[in-house]
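Hi L.,

As promised, PD-(D/E)XK nuclease superfamily protein:
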Amino acid sequence: MDKELYEKLKKYINIAYEQKMLKTDYSYNNQFSFFMTISDQYRKENFHSDLLKVILNPSTIQIGNPEYLRKFLNIIGLDMNVFGNNQEIKNYVKVEREEHKVDVLIKYDKPENKKAIIIENKINDAVDQDNQLARYYEALTNDGYEVLKIPYITLFGGKIPDYDNWDNKYKNISNKIFDKTNPLFYELPVSNKEKCLIKFLNDCIEFNKTETSNNNNHLSLVLLEQYKLLLSKLVENTEMTPEEINNIKELFEDNKKEKLIALLKNWEFRGKCAYEYIVNKCTKDDVIHISRIHGSECLVLEKQNNFYEGVYLYPGDSSIQIGFYRANNNWDDSIKKEAEKYLKKICNDFFNTKIESNWIYIYKNWYCVYIEIDTFNSFDEINTKFRKALIELSKFKEESTLGGC
């Protein structure tokens, strides 16, 4: 594989893995979501803006806390003390909805030192209006505010307003908002980055758990945790992130499709490759050796007794088959019952896999089950565990478990 294709694949794999782990960590599927249960309003931007105002506003009845705003300032790259201490925040900070049509507007109204943060909410991927951020900035500066930051909230990030097509009269404003050195624009994804909206909520939750002075801790904790869960579910229910889509686009358009398709086809046979690795580890003196059973080549460990002639491994596309074999097809119910019990025990002990009865089947004179290999970390681990499992499986004897026959 050429180096450029390898680097692109590595980048894509890392992003895909991070997204998978994010979903796993938050355990969305089996958790009750209050917001999703009572309404579908969470699909609308206004719903999220209303909730953010409730959380960020230090004056919210019962649950308002200046520390939540300070946590938010930290997330968007500002000094946590930019609005002063907690008392100053309570005295001078207001959080508004739809003032100058801004989704969420944080205002610091201390005389002679007015500051503002413009929050633009695009969680549900609403389109940008013409000159939108520039008009907001102009309105606030005309009111005498210094705009400190413009957090731009999207589900995964990667979306930036098309400011090159703003009207010429907003050219100077766009240069300030998207300044290369110190931009006011701040990309704030719900997830997918170290500093994201879920991280902000988590910081508030952790603070809330340690805070003892607020008698309304439990109420605010429920709100924060349920909103965090809702956002996590929205992330999970999105099929692909923008980063994943972009990587697929790059892989598709780099004129290396033939190599990539060939690689993916080979990947489908990873079970056979792992099996061949085990074969190559065999020695002439090994008790496990290659043999043919009803025309198929497989690795066997012969163990003559009244029940079977041996145990074996056989490759699948993304799995390896393990089981017993015997000279005839006479698998009566009593034999199958005991063999199934032992095969389940081996799979649990060596592969940490709880197999169902319907996974085990008879094929000619094989009594077997396929074990997927994707949970293993390396071919060496596969080799070690399958060989040990095969040896342990061979210890099963009809006369010891069935009482003879």
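Residues 3-26 form the longest helix (24 residues).

Thanks again for sending the construct details.

K.
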